[in-house]
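Summarise this fold before class:
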Amino acid sequence: MSTSEMSNDPPEGGQKVWLDWRSIAASAAALAIAFAIVFIAWMILRPLAILLMSIILAEALEPLVQRFQKRMRRSLAVVLTYLSVVLAMVLLALTFVPMVLTEVGDLTESIPDAVDDLSAWVDEQGWVSEDQITEFFEGQMENGGGGFAEAPLMIVSGLAELTLAVFLSIYWLIGKPGARSLALSMVPPHRRDEAEDISAEVGSTIGGYIRGVVISGAILAVVAFIGLTLIGVDFALPLAMFMFFGELIPIIGPLAALVPALIVAAFDSMTKMLLVIGLYLVIQFLESSVVYPQVMKRQASIPPILVIFALLAGGSVGGLIGALVAIPLAGAIRVLIIRLAVPRIQKRLGNNQPVKE
């Protein structure tokens, strides 16, 4: 048997066809692997979001853990941190929840009268009859009955996921030093200091965003409460709480918090409604020009354009949880790109100027 017959290489005439088939097979395999990764990521999207929420929560509490750790073991510092947070939340609940519930009860009782006044006013304008408005609200209540029935199940499911995220965050904080040491052991010795700095910066960005949102939300809620009280709008405390929780969802949340305030003020007088619009414009200016830049500059350096993009991308993939998780995750990816990818690209291009964040 000749050497050409024993060879595994294709004949010269078929070499091009052989290479084409090999390229097609490699492309098909890569495409199949990519689809498999996307499918697996989609299937575990909810658990993965809960895990990321726990990491974000843990990194937000890391500075407090480090303060307690100066006087005790880390495990005890973690437990004391969570006990302090729970105690603070209980005190806030005991202080504000009774007042909020009282005002919400008054608001609920005033809704029928407000609907009657609205119906009479619209009927006077001649747009639609009062009977048509009553039928509209009754139809909305009937259509929303299924949603109200599902609400308790959604609340229980959300509380269960939040509880799971809290417990996972406790384990993350306790095991973080060991995990970091293991990760650094796989880095070359001459790069470990840089890797440790990058790891600390990523953690600071992830946790700092949550701290910044809570701080800015509390500041704006206090401003909203004082402003609504001075204007004389009823139910100022619940409306200020809307502002606080709306701040947790950038861009959309503060605008959504304006709607109930406008509705409540409109039932009182047109003058109060215009004053509320002016108040919320002032709050929006304070948020974009003073509070957000100053707080976020100290807590986490995430550009507003990146916040908007991450909000839209995370919301389209994972809804509200995806939007909340995507923003600090995008900040962490930004740190990795600036600290790892950009210097290497600059080195190849012969440009060693530092990146301005």
